[in-house]
User: Fold these one by one.
Assistant:
Number 1:
Amino acid sequence: MLITRLNIERVRNLKAVALHGLQPFNVFYGSNGSGKTSVLEAVHLLATGRSFRTHLPKNYIQHHTQDAIVFAQSETEKIGMQKYLSGEQLIKVNGDSVATQGQLAKILPLQHLEPQSTDIIDYGAKPRRQMLDWLMFHVEPEFYATWQFYARTLKQRNSLLKSNRYLSLSDLEPWNKMLSDYGEILHSLRSMVIEKWTPFFQADLKRLLPQLDIQMEYQPGFHDETGLLNDLTNYHSKDLERGYTEYGPHRADIRLKTTLGEADAILSRGQKKLLIMALKLSQIAMLHSCNKETVVLLDDLTAELDLTAQQRLIERLSQLGSQVFITTLEYDSVKNHLHDLSISYQLFNVEQGQIRVIPQ
């Protein structure tokens, strides 16, 4: 979905925003606190139903108001979200109300790139698992429903483990069987997608870190050689002691390994940032190969990437057919990159929540 029109109301300090004629690349510049990142936050809210800065709606909905609205339009689609202080939301696609955020996410695949962050590598399995599942959601039709069934079953099993420490193995047998069945399907789907993703990852890794050999190693979260049901049975007593389920796809991980050891321990901060870029760009490339284009939010581009890395990133995103929303304090270098690469763009100045189009 190439967004041609974007409307934002009552998000943080932004005045009523009405942007038309958006381009493949859209650059928002201004001082710190001007509202640049709030524009990206609003697009993220529309695509995912949540902010990347806070879990609480009251933190992004303007003070003394009850809701925030984000609306986007392309040549073929109109999508909108109204988010309330309570956390409830109203979602519309082409004027019709829809029940789940997933329907918007399918229309508007979105990647948030943060050049200053190394969280995916340094902060444990969860962000890597979320990264994998984003790709799963967009390329594997069976994944979302299977994951929902698995998550519900896991929640029920954990509830039983917490409420009764004297449960016998036979008491949990039906839950073990269901969790195992859904878990094995998830494992199979993830394994297939990892296999397809790997060549894309290696190609983008060579572009950004050609001197390094880094491999992705998928860990399913259980002993796949004997099966999940075997783990649920064998570790029954330990699960009762813990009060939660230790083994399963909810504990899966992607380990990133160099020839010298784990990437989180071996790579420099700069190398980690480029590795994360390679991971996310390769996901965008995989979607592009399936004729699915991704909207990319690129926050503070010039903060930590040198000029060469900036240009390589912009060029690659353009090759992949992405629509990109960029924020920066220093727009001259971004303009020069876009001009040198002959990429269509629109420049916006953001001051105290007001957005002004800068003519080319």
Note: The chain has two domains: 1-109+293-360, 120-290.
Number 2:
Amino acid sequence: MRDADGQVTSTIRRTVLPSGLRVISEQMAGVRSAAIGVWVGVGSRDESASLHGCSHFLEHLLFKGTRERSALDISIALDAVGGEFNAFTAKEYTCFHARVLDEDLPLAVDVLGDMITASLLSEDDVEAERDVILDEIAMHDDDPDDVVHNLFAEQAWGPDTPLGRGIAGTAESIAALSRAQVARFYRKHYRAANMVVSAAGSVDHAALVDQVRAAFGREGFLDGEEAPVPPRSGAVARRVHPGTVTASRPFEQVNVVLGMQGVPRDDDRRFALGVLNTALGGGTSSRLFQEVRERRGLAYSVYSFASHHADSGLVGVAVGCLPSKLDDVLDVVRAELRRVAAEGISEEELSRGKGQLRGGLVLGLEDSGSRMSRIGKAELVHDELLSIDEVMARIEAVTLDDVRSVAAQVFGRREILAVVGPS
């Protein structure tokens, strides 16, 4: 990338080790921080029914200690230098990440390498963390937004499919998981060729590669030669299941998600869909916010979304309203979706949608953590890494016809409706 004066402001470099472990970094000028992430190509959609929640369970367990460090040692190591340290599990990948001062990056690399390659997964830790995860599941069950989105995914993909099941698992599946099952899952998926180490900020790539070799060389983890695991295939489009599903909960509001099948992660239509999504429900000036909240006062919260997987995606509208207003809310949302499918959006909405996407993209990449996530995810799940300028150009190239076409294709599909609230 170059700034307004034509000076290089960031440099991306990539190295593939013989074991298949990929190391990618982005050097950013003028920063004193560094962010690092270890991206593993396994998520909840890789679980069988008997392993439901295993990816998330394993994410927790890797913080519990190694031969060199106890769980407390792991926490102290990053806390002592003021670092930020966390992890998350998604449908198609898991990420462990840290953000530190640039001088402390070698420490962060070593801690992450130790955790990833040499976790003990002791029986005692499995039992202790099982209760923590059961508490987390209970917490999500008390959040109406979490409940309705999980219900929506379950209806869309099917309750007996990996994509349709919740990431954290259920109380029953977590209670049934054994230490042996988790350990086998760990050995199968946590392989060098199935991982990407990404870093951004004040980073020297050659030094980073050396640090990764040392930190991830424990337990013979980098022994042998293997090609990197390619991105998850999306060659066969996955279909969704239209229909309505409801759940009774003692909430004050009714929470609703109404949506349809969207587009896969690498579909070229995603840029037009992004502009459409922003114009439809991406901010306070969007159609849905203005129509549902400002003009009619039907709901406090209303927004649209688009989610993407390797082989399919979802689009939808989420609303929280009083039970007495549910029918009116659904009428208005359906009418707006039909109108957009038939007419597209206006020139002014197109311009505003592009501006919001461009601004969100650039502002979201002001810090090293966002840059690290961008290049890490691109390396793990995409076939290409588009530069910021290339992404901006693709957004700018979206036309009214592009938006009208994708709106007709997506919003013309049969709907999926999830409703959660008082009976």
Note: The longest strand covers residues 313-321.
Number 3:
Amino acid sequence: MDKLQTVEERVAHLQRMVDDLSDVVARQDAEIRRLARHVGLLMEREADREAAEGAIPLTDQRPPHW
């Protein structure tokens, strides 16, 4: 019976760790999505600014080593 209790305790501990890690991954996913939206908005804003100045957008420029 002692071995069974030890195994049950380990399983409970592992389940708690899995739940905690799942929460961390969910928070990180939300943060990555939020940051990706911000980067997209910043890229659009910069492209609009460059277009207003008449400059070639950075995404259309060739790198200097080409």
Note: The chain has a mean pLDDT of 89.
Number 4:
Amino acid sequence: MTSRPDTAGAGTNRQALSVPAFRRLSAAWVFTNFADSALYLTAAVWMKHLTGSDAAAGLVFACLGLPALLAPVTGWLADHLPRRGLLVAANAGSAAVVLPLLLVSDAAMAWLIYPVMFLYGTGSYLTSAAQSGLLKDLLEPRLLAPGNGLLTSIDQGLRIVSPLLGAGLFALWGMAPIVVLTVCCFAASALVLAGLPTSVVRAAPHSRPGFWTESVAGAVFLARHRVLRTATLAIVILVCGAGALNVTEFAAVDQGAGLPPEFISVLASVQGVFAIIGGLSAAAVIRRIGLSWCLRIGIAVFALGIPLLATASVPLFFLAVALAGTGVSLAVVSFNTLRQSETPSSLQGRTAAATQVVISLPQVASSALAAVLISVLDYRALTLAASVMCLAALLPLMQRRPSAPAVPDAPQPAADPAK
């Protein structure tokens, strides 16, 4: 097991950005997220316009989520192929698979959107798994926290801008400009990533067990590692509570405040701004109080903001989403940093992929359950129940464990079970 970098020793955002390879990775991340944020929501809106069916539009999101079931394969690839080359290929491949959308002109061709979105989603999961290991390859341990914080802030910032741009382009000129923009962004990302120095990109060593044993090794590692097991359980409980908010937030705006559903986009923008602030400040918080306490505080801040959505007060709605945005970034950055720090390089892709599955599926299930319950229960009761669920995420983290050493000032070689 690796040493646990949990206390005040994290570097700063400036120090992370001083690493040329990380700056290049961040630039590629801007292009990738810009394309992703512009496409994923607009594709569902496009399907609605083509078919007039809410169900057909909803299936677009299902196609984007289904590749999570391929996590054993994507994680295995991320740990057995050179990560720089895999990221270049994934971005170039995403550009290629999106191009057929230019052939869709009416409802008769709308079916083509589904396989394209499935392949596109597969590329996104592959990129995420490979990037987890690449980030640890590029940065020394004490810079993982600011590195994750900066990437999270980029992600959240583009989630504010890109969907608005995508919606504007779609309203003015249809889907073709969005497809072309997406292709160009993924191609640019591939070119930027191709310039990463090969000396800092390490391919994971091949292991001897069979494919199935290797492919589930990430999930097994998470389950057997006491610190990561409890942290992952906490995040899973948190997203179960958060998943219900996808449903109750609409009811809070409509039934509670008497505002049109479009007001959700205003709240989402405010939440995104504070998520950026949370991501940029995460390294400083971790440096002061450590990873485990940053994770606890992030969960608590997120959970304490949720009950304010049951008040029917617009100012309190803004406070709720501000707390939610800040809290979720602190929790995500600290969890990702903890997972990367505790996981050997040869398992980075598989643990990242396993994490995607155990987080995505419960969140989808909780959203579906809330959609059923809201027809028979008051939205305020569901909102408060979601808050209690999120606070319950703190329970696994309350187990006592030995104190941990500080984040090292220089990279330390991790024990690698595959060697």
Note: The CA atoms of residues 141 and 411 lie 6 Å apart.
